UniProtKB/TrEMBL annotation, chain A:
It is a multi-pass membrane protein. PANTHER family: ABC TRANSPORTER PERMEASE PROTEIN YPHD-RELATED-RELATED, INNER MEMBRANE ABC TRANSPORTER PERMEASE PROTEIN YJFF. InterPro entries: ABC_transp_permease. It is found in: Cell membrane. It comes from Planotetraspora phitsanulokensis. This is Sugar ABC transporter permease. Pfam families: BPD_transp_2. Keywords: Cell membrane, Membrane, Transmembrane, Transmembrane helix. It comes from the Bacteria. Signal peptide: none annotated. The chain crosses the membrane at residues 17-37, 49-68, 75-94, 100-120, 132-152, 172-192, 224-244, 256-282, 302-322.
TrEMBL record, chain B:
GO terms for molecular function: ATP binding; ATP hydrolysis activity. It comes from the Bacteria. This is Sugar ABC transporter ATP-binding protein. Keywords: ATP-binding, Cell membrane, Membrane, Nucleotide-binding, Repeat, Translocase, Transport. It comes from Planotetraspora phitsanulokensis. PROSITE patterns: ABC_TRANSPORTER_1 (PS00211), ABC_TRANSPORTER_2 (PS50893). GO terms for cellular component: plasma membrane. It is a peripheral membrane protein. CDD domains: ABC_Carb_Monos_I (cd03216), ABC_Carb_Monos_II (cd03215). InterPro entries: AAA+_ATPase, ABC_carbohydrate_import_ATPase, ABC_transporter-like_ATP-bd, ABC_transporter-like_CS, P-loop_NTPase.
UniProtKB/TrEMBL annotation, chain C:
InterPro entries: ABC_transp_permease (IPR001851). CDD domains: TM_PBP1_transp_AraH_like (cd06579). Keywords: Cell membrane, Membrane, Transmembrane, Transmembrane helix. PANTHER family: ABC TRANSPORTER PERMEASE PROTEIN YPHD-RELATED-RELATED, GALACTOFURANOSE TRANSPORTER PERMEASE PROTEIN YTFT. It is found in: Cell membrane. Pfam families: BPD_transp_2 (PF02653). It is a multi-pass membrane protein. GO terms for cellular component: plasma membrane. The chain crosses the membrane at residues 9-31, 43-65, 72-90, 96-118, 130-148, 168-190, 219-238, 250-269, 276-296, 302-322. GO terms for molecular function: transmembrane transporter activity. Its main location: membrane. It comes from Planotetraspora phitsanulokensis. This is Sugar ABC transporter permease. The keyword Isomerase does not apply.
């Protein structure tokens, strides 16, 4: 059925219900954490969730676009690392001004996205491989630029890293969080209020049909990868703000975190269905699990992993149990 | 007569192993409804796809308003003023009905899509076409007929110079077809050139002004509809004089077998889909389901197969009560089901034609008992010839077949299993005249051999022609059961539907 | 000629051959195979031997991908299987006892298959997206492997166990024989029975498969179980080859390599049609690539760029769309301009 | 200190010191020995340990440290995943008046941001190997072909050990690194890389592996190629974990520079000193040494890991 509950002015779609269930579970998990660990319940812990995962949030939002078209982008972590590396290198070695470096780095991210999108669409290379090659390339370029880890000493970065926006007595934000929220808002708006966004959904639903309906499939698909590239580059810059350093080893495995966040947020890997709000919740969930384990603080490395797995499992099972009604066809 | 708005000259298109179009000329004038005719696989859809740039032609040219154009794709075609409904419903299943109507040309203000406007205009358009559907419903929750209507609404609303409709009526019932024709005529009078493909000769004769006939990818000729008799048309299409078109006289032979019913449904229903109903089908009996679009025929058929699980009632197959929790359970009891939406529920496009044909039998056998190569070839060969599936290459991927041939593949798939009860949901959808008659004959002869058939079709005449008993549905409720007799006419059935009474 | 280049295995095979030839140019003795210590010895043998685990994992992955799924947990299963086997063997009095090794191997394989089964249940029964269902085991599974090894390397000194991944039999590497047998059996199982077709049907169109009565849940569970089993055998090989179970690193990121091998081999990630031979070629291409990097001495900091370039070239060459575009561009001047023939003689009753 | 220990801390009893420790991950046996040592020492020292594994991710580690600040632990210690990028979070810790101790790996932040750094010096380890090599081949007349198995590309130990080693051997032009590949610090990769390198290079005199595990993998490769490790090809490694020492004692490795994971006791000592308000040294190098084959046989029976 299309609608749950009564057919009235307020209708809750099933997909919306899934997001709500996910949100509810997240809150429940947080509440449980606060009961078990007293210091857990503070506002700063919530804010920290955004601070510590800000870059992942931005990257995952970009990933959402790609997954909605039915593709996948494995290069995000590497492109983010490359952006950090470029920042560090251009600022530190070549002493270029920040106002040039940051746009340039974003452009490089977009360029990566464009390249992969172009190859995926026009040469019909499977997204998995095209972006895997992109991942190798971006990470490889990091090491070509510098094998060493580089500190970023540019005052813009160091100051940014320490800027705190007070938010009540004990809580404060970083600008990163605000950027993350802006990216979220823009992404939401793009997906739901622009033709490009709707075409992204249409392609994910059925790209052949989208083509026959006269939608600009090539442009849309390539742009989705460009958005992901842009978000990765931005995520890389945010990460550089966070760590004021760059290294080819940064953000290894981030692509899996991002994909996991998107999919846990209810987006279908086959494309065409999902919301960026879900992605935000997915990132929050991954962050919350980590936070709980940090507060637990007695687990060995392997029990940590097992615990992450079990918590993830519980969450997904509950999400599945509560969030799904029987599909009709 | 003004100059042709659209002209195709010497167009050829080949696919590996198939010559789909060979040096075809085609003209379309403004203010005419032009029917493109041909058997299944004649090249109609290919011609249309070349025209809209989905395929690039191997040779030949397209002229629009006298000027040579090279259409790069559907998007380009749209900007050139060609609006198309392709044969298989090509919409996005994950979007709402309203969005499917407007996507790509959403009304927007300052770059932002105006959703309210979209919903309002979509609702307006849909009501104008008499489509009773919530514009906010996801498209994949709508029946195929609704989807087809949505595609038409979309194409028509793009006010274009040329409107192409490739078998738009294959799932529609009379009323909807009439609605569509009214719109088509109005557009024609406004000077739009309309290209129309259909296998319903009645419809073609009712609405078209001229027609072009294709056979085996080659042009046969261009005719004025009024001056071409049906017999001649069929002759041009098939290249032979058709004897199979003669009326089947089934309805008199109401020799119903008084044996144990193959299927006995007792109060079977499913919330939101169809109200509980009773149904009996005996061996050798053809039971037709009649009703308007969205009346619940498909839903009823699916319940008999376990494709959906009923939430009330019991089904007895061959005398024993069987819980139909999955299609598998039904298949084990000799039930076969040919779904209406061949693209999403029937065909497996990746597999070859041969594999698609043996799939059901193989699934029933289990993977451990594969059919021997020889047996497979024999079966596939036999049914491909019997149903005249072209091209006759069992190793061709099923996606490459023309729409009608794909439908035949699905039929073959189930015939091979030699079912006791065959459920056919719109089995003649998109099938050409000759083949349709053959399929009807096939159904009749199957029934003579003792197979029970549940037959769903939007075409009342067809239902009447071959069924022994007709179940009439309205508003997802079975309202009447009538034995078929000479006195029963399509009009009579429509009346029953309208009045909700048994005559 | 067309028939050869048109074959779906032509391009992966061509790529492999070119890569091997490139090696021959850089390292003249690359193709030489000698008999040393009673067994074959040479770079080509190394590629086969070291590529064995990847071939197996990719084999299992192919079957899963055919159903439209994916299995991210293979790397973790590799670690678990090796860890369990070595843990059991290292606890035995006589590590060289064949029965003891057999028991350990059997238990490890049963556990691997069980883990695959678990994945399958989640995907087919609970209906969780494959990538997430297997991600859970990917994360937790490595923890389990570390739990078994207590985070350390477990060394074993057991000649029979060593045979699996590092030994030779009739001068041939035993692992290669195992792969050959598994591939042959799998090939028989999928192509001589109807299994392959049914799996392809499920991957091609799940709903249609349900409606023709394919018991897809069982088959999907079977596919994941098989994948787990293959990963388990690969895990035994990897740990046996170095006589050590490394719960932390064994099989790390191997899932990506396996998926890459499958895709290079010509199987689409969207499910449906699959080719086992292609997958084996794909795995060999990847292994050859690593060996090439090591033998030709590509500096470690540019290794990844090198890999990226090779993978990109391999995929582009394989892509019909790419070839079509490149060829058409070159062929265009030769093709005669489409002359519009005179109006065909058509009867027009206008 | 702020004296807030225990009040807001989770589970800290009065008077008991709470130490938050963020470990790099669990990538090797060495790391595990390191973790174990810290856990055991904390227990015997009566310190309440909060342990967290960062799975080799700096972002996790930063978040962990910030979480320790939230939990108001008394002292924070961590083994940094990477050298760079700690300023901000260390400043946060400083602002919260929580002293920080680094273990095992250094950071490049301003030294005022942490109280002490306890750990090995990777460059020195590389240099120790370099010294041995110079000495071993001081009489060599022809070229000495050296193969280097590097650690994970971009990781601090790999970079520093390579730097230390190569800076030393540069003084003898006969010493030539003919192949240098990453073996990712693992046994399997060490073996695979060495197998390939052996095929491509017929004459290898010395193998330098950045850790014991890769060295042991390479030994297997060398043996399978029909050569005698330690004799036909000399092998030097770093770490001195048990397996490495065994191989050294067996004559398959020629020399090992120790990199001790057992910093637990020293760390707890420092933590107690900090809490007692005593001054601690900024840089404490772990007690490390080098081993020859002879020394290895002697030391082996009493080795803890
Ligand atoms: N993509 C393709 N690849 C290979 N062959 C194709 C492809 N598309 C169509 N064909 C072949 O081209 C011929 C013409 O097909 P087309 O779809 O145009 O027929 P049609 O006239 O529309 O038939 P129908 O009435 O059944 O829809 C058929 O033989 C078909 O098998
Ligand atoms: N998933 C669904 N959710 C909500 N409504 C649905 C869903 N599927 C179908 N319907 C509606 O249920 C009604 C019955 O549909 P059904 O497909 O059974 O009609 P039908 O009698 O077979 O007619 P036809 O096939 O010609 O549309 C239709 O109004 C249809 O729009
Ligand atoms: Mg057609
Ligand atoms: Mg229907």
């Amino acid at each position: 059925m299309t609608t749950l509950g009564v057919k009235g002015p307020v209708r809750i779609r099933r997909e919306h219900a899934a997001v709500l269930v996910t949100f509810g579970l997240l809150v429940a998990m947080f509440a449980a954490g606060s009961i078990v660990y007293p210091a857990f319940g503070s506002g700063q812990v919530v804010v920290d969730l955004f601070i510590d995962n800000g870059f992942l949030l931005v990257i995952a939002i970009g990933m959402t676009f790609v997954i909605l078209t039915g593709g996948i982008d494995l290069s995000v972590g590497a492109v983010a690392a490359l952006s950090g590396m470029l920042c560090a290198f251009l600022l530190g070695q070549w002493h270029w001004p920040v106002a040039v470096v940051l746009p340039l780095v974003l452009l490089v991210g977009v360029g990566f996205g464009f390249g992969m999108g172009y190859v995926i669409h026009h040469f019909e290379i499977q997204p998995f491989i095209a972006t895997l090659a992109g991942m190798f390339l971006a990470r490889g370029l990091c090491f070509v630029i510098s094998v060493d880890q580089i500190s970023i000493t540019h005052p813009f970065f160091t100051e940014w890293a320490q800027t705190r926006i007070p938010l009540g007595e004990e809580t404060n934000l970083t600008p990163t969080v605000l950027i993350g929220l802006v990216v979220f808002a823009v992404a939401f708006w793009t997906l739901h209020y622009t033709r490009f966004g709707r075409a992204v959904y249409a392609i994910g639903g059925n790209d052949q049909s989208a083509l026959l309906m006269g939608l600009p499939v090539a442009r849309t698909r390539i742009r989705a990868y460009m958005v992901s590239g842009l978000c990765s580059a931005l995520g890389g810059i945010l990460f550089a703000f966070y760590t004021i350093s760059a290294s080819g080893l940064h953000e290894v495995g981030t692509e899996l975190d991002a994909i996991a966040a998107v999919v846990i947020g209810g987006t279908l890997l086959t494309g065409g269905s999902g919301y960026v709000v879900g992605t935000v919740l997915g990132v929050m969930l991954l962050g919350t699990i980590q936070t709980i384990l940090r507060f637990q603080g007695t687990l060995s490395s392997w029990w940590t992993r097992i615990a992450i797995g079990v918590l993830l499992l519980l969450f997904i099972l509950l999400q599945r149990l509560l969030g799904s009604s029987r599909t009709r066809r | 007569m003004p100059g042709a708005v659209l002209e195709m000259i010497g167009v050829s298109k080949g696919f590996p192993g198939v010559r789909a179009l060979a040096d075809v000329d085609f003209r379309l004038f403004p203010g005419e409804i032009h029917a493109l005719m041909g058997e299944n696989g004649a090249g109609k859809s290919t011609l249309i796809k070349v025209l809209t740039g989905v395929y690039s032609a191997d040779a030949g040219e397209v002229r629009l308003g006298g000027e040579r154009v090279s259409v790069t794709g559907p998007q380009h075609a749209q900007t050139l003023g060609i609006s198309t409904v392709y044969q298989e419903v090509n919409l996005c299943p994950n979007l709402t009905v309203a969005e499917n109507v407007f996507i790509g040309r959403e009304p927007s203000k300052a770059g932002a899509i105006r959703w309210r406007e979209i919903r309002r205009r979509a609702a307006e358009l849909l009501t104008r076409f008499g489509v009773d559907v919530d514009p906010g419903a996801r498209l994949d929750t709508c029946s195929l007929a609704i989807q087809q209507l949505v595609a038409i609404v979309r194409a028509v609303d793009i006010s274009a110079k040329v409107l192409i409709l490739d078998e738009p009526t294959s799932s529609l019932d009379r009323d909807e077809v009439e609605q569509l024709f009214t719109v088509m005529r109005r557009l024609r009078d406004d000077g739009v050139a309309i290209l129309f493909v259909s296998h319903f000769l009645d419809q073609v004769y009712e609405v078209s002004d001229r027609m072009t006939v294709l056979r085996n990818g080659a042009l046969v000729g261009e005719y004025q509809t009024a001056r071409l008799s049906r017999i001649d048309l069929v002759g041009h299409m098939t290249g032979r004089t058709l004897s199979t078109l003669e009326q089947l006289h089934v309805r008199d032979e109401t020799a119903r077998v008084q044996a144990e019913p193959v299927l006995k449904a007792d109060g079977v229903g499913r919330k939101g889909a169809i109200a509980p109903f009773d149904l009996e089908i005996h061996p050798g009996e053809v039971v037709g389901l009649a009703g308007l679009l969205g009346s619940g025929r498909t839903e009823a058929a699916r319940l008999m197969f376990g494709a959906d699980v009923a939430d009330s009632g019991t089904v007895a197959l061959g005398g024993a009560s069987v819980p139909l929790r999955s299609p598998n359970a039904a298949i084990q009891h000799g039930v076969a089901f040919c779904p209406e939406n061949r693209k999403s529920e029937g065909l497996i496009e990746d597999l070859t034609v041969g594999e698609n044909i043996v799939l059901a039998l193989q699934a029933a056998n289990g993977w451990l008992r594969p059919l021997s190569q020889a047996k497979r070839q024999e079966l596939v060969g036999r049914y491909m010839t019997a149903l005249r599936i072209t091209p006759a290459d069992p190793d061709m991927p099923a996606r490459n077949l023309s729409g009608g041939n794909q439908q035949k593949v699905l039929l073959a798939r189930w015939l091979i299993t030699q079912p006791k009860l065959l459920i056919l949901d719109e089995p003649t959808r998109g099938i050409d005249v000759g083949a349709k008659a053959e399929i009807q004959k096939l159904v009749v002869s199957l029934a003579e051999d003792g197979v029970a058939v549940l037959f769903v079709s939007a075409e009342l005449e067809e239902v009447l022609r071959i069924s022994h008993k007709i179940e009439v549905l309205r508003d997802r409720r079975l309202i009447a059961e009538i034995g078929n007799a000479a006195s029963v006419t399509p009009e009579g059935i429509l009346e029953i539907i309208a009045n909700g009474t048994t005559s | 000629m067309k028939a050869v280049t048109g074959h779906r295995l032509f391009w992966p095979a061509a790529v492999l051959v070119v890569m091997l030839l490139a090696n021959l140019v850089v390292t003249p003795g690359f193709f030489s195979i000698q008999v040393r210590n009673g067994h074959l010895y040479g770079s080509l043998i190394d590629i086969l031997l070291l590529g064995s685990p990847l071939m197996l994992i990719a084999l299992g992955m192919t079957v899963v991908i055919a159903t439209g799924g994916i299995d991210l947990s293979v790397g973790a299963v590799v670690a678990i299987s090796g860890a369990l086997a070595c843990y059991l063997i290292s606890g035995q009095e006589d590590q060289g006892a064949v029965t003891g090794v057999l028991v350990a191997v059997a238990l490890a394989l049963v556990l691997s298959a069980a883990l695959g089964f678990w994945n399958g249940l989640f995907v087919a029964r609970v209906g969780i997206q494959p990538i997430i269902a297997t991600l859970i085991l990917m994360v937790a599974g490595r923890g389990v492997a570390q739990l078994i090894t207590s985070g350390k390397n477990i060394n074993v000194n057991s000649p029979p166990y060593k045979l699996i991944g590092g030994g030779y039999w009739l001068t041939l590497p035993f692992a290669v024989i195992v792969v050959a047998v598994v591939v042959a059996l799998t090939g028989l199982a999928v192509r001589r029975t109807a299994l392959g077709m049914l799996l392809e049907a499920i991957g091609g169109n799940a709903e249609a498969s349900r409606l023709v009565g394919i018991r897809s849940r069982r088959l999907v569970v079977l596919a994941y179980t098989f994948c787990g089993l293959c990963a388990g055998i690969a895990g035994l090989m990897i740990s046996s080859n170095i006589s050590t179970a490394d719960g932390n690193n064994a099989g790390l990121w191997m899932e990506l390599d396996a998926i890459l091998a499958v895709v290079i081999g010509g199987t689409a990630l969207t499910g449906g049609r699959f080719t086992l031979a292609g997958t084996i070629l794909g795995a060999l291409v990847i292994q050859t690539l690593s060996t090439t990097i090591y033998t030709t001495g590509v500096p470690s900091q540019v290794t990844l760029v090198f890999k990226a370039v090779v993978v990109a070239i391999v995929c582009l060459i394989q892509s019909p769309a790419f070839r079509a575009k490149v060829f058409r561009r070159r062929a265009r001047p030769e093709a005669p301009p489409p002359a519009s023939p005179a109006a065909a003689d058509v009867e027009v009753n206008a | 200190g702020s004296g807030s220990g225990g009040s807001g801390g989770s589970g800290g009893d009065d008077g008991k010191i709470t130490l938050g420790f963020s470990q790099v991950g669990s990538e090797s046996g060495w790391r595990e020995a390191n973790t174990k040592s810290i856990k055991e020492s904390a227990q015997t020292a009566g310190i309440d340990l909060k342990f967290s594994d960062a799975q080799q991710k700096q972002e996790n580690q930063i978040a962990t440290i910030r979480s320790y600040i939230q939990q108001k632990v008394d002292v924070i210690a961590f083994s940094p995943v990477v050298v760079t990028g700690w300023d901000a979070v260390l400043k946060e810790a400083q602002a919260a008046k929580i002293p920080v101790v680094l273990t095992d790996r250094a950071v490049d932040s301003d030294p005022s941001l942490y109280v002490s750094f306890l750990g090995s010096d990777f460059v020195k380890e590389g240099e120790a190997i370099g010294d041995w090599t110079l000495n071993e081949y001081k009489d060599a007349t022809g070229p000495v072909n050296i193969v280097q198995l590097e650690g994970t590309v971009g990781s601090a130990p790999a970079i520093d050990r390579k730097k230390g080693f190569e800076s030393k051997i540069a003084s003898n032009p006969n010493l030539k690194v003919i192949a240098s590949q990453s073996g990712d610090f693992t046994r399997a990769d060490g073996k695979e890389v060495m197998t390939a390198i052996l095929k491509a290079n017929p004459k290898i005199d010395l193998l330098f592996a950045h850790n014991d595990d890769m060295g042991i993998g390479a030994i297997q490769a060398i043996e399978e190629a029909g050569k005698k490790p330690g004799v036909d090809i000399k092998i030097v490694t770093i770490d001195a974990v048990h397996d490495g020492m065994q191989a050294l004692a067996d004559g398959k490795i020629n020399f090992i520079a120790e990199c001790s994971p057992l910093l637990g006791d020293q760390l707890m000592e420092i933590v107690k000193q900090i809490k007692a308000g005593q001054p601690v040294e900024k840089r404490i190098i772990t007690k490390e040494t080098t081993f020859t084959q002879q020394q290895a046989s002697e030391a082996l029976p009493s080795r803890k890991y």
